[in-house]
# Entry
Amino acid sequence: MLENVISIPISNGMKVIQESLKEKYNPEGSELRRYQLHLLDTLVEFDTFCKKNDIQYYLAYGTLLGAIRHEGFIPWDDDADLWMDRENYEKLEKLMHGEHHVLTDKLSVAMGIRPELYSPPYACIDIFIIDACPNSNILAKIKEWLIRFVYVMIKLRGRHGTANYGRYRKGIFMLPLALCCTIDQWKNIYKRVAQLFTPKGTYSTSRVQCYNETMSGLKRRYNTNDLCCAPAYAKFEGHLFPIPAKYDAILRVCYGNYMQIPDNTHIHVHNIIKEIEVVK
# Structure
């Protein structure tokens, strides 16, 4: 029996609101709900893999928020996010391979387990790697801007030869510099910068960050003791998954008043399933 299972009381009023949100965004049988169940199966399989190989991870971002506020997927959500420290990620990287276990360049886990529903038969779990953030604000900013710079180099290098530079067209003047290295070389530089102040998977600082976050997400910094600790567990779609024991402090960094349901103008839908051919 797992210890430290988190259960957040939900008022009757909140239950009514949540049911109305489900009816609006992901009613049973809808494409989104079918994809969420597909993604849930993938998450359960991933959890089994991690338990078998003694790999620690935590639910992250919207998936963690969903576990605490909805005991499952946020009704409009269509992805799964996890946190993992550098040591556990490198262990996962060595072990996960094969047809149904693929680590992509985006640091996602693609695991196809229900090919009868979707083509291609993949559901992606995004893994955000926890690395050390310097205690010095000056050094933290330097590391952040180094990450931003290398990230832009990777994007420019990858789009070289195409007509689509998208949001990176403003940095086109740096293309000659981007062409000095291959994409793989830039990615190795990216990993080296992310691991500064993170010797051998340990944390030498009081703060941590996820450097493979979105560029806006790089502003999120967490207390090391809040995010890197023994896990608690929370219900998510009828299953128990590990979460940071100090989830409240973590979610407040991410979302502020996280228990408040956002209004329609602040609901962000990824639209991942629009990129997937759903078999009728």
Observations:
- The longest strand covers residues 123-133.
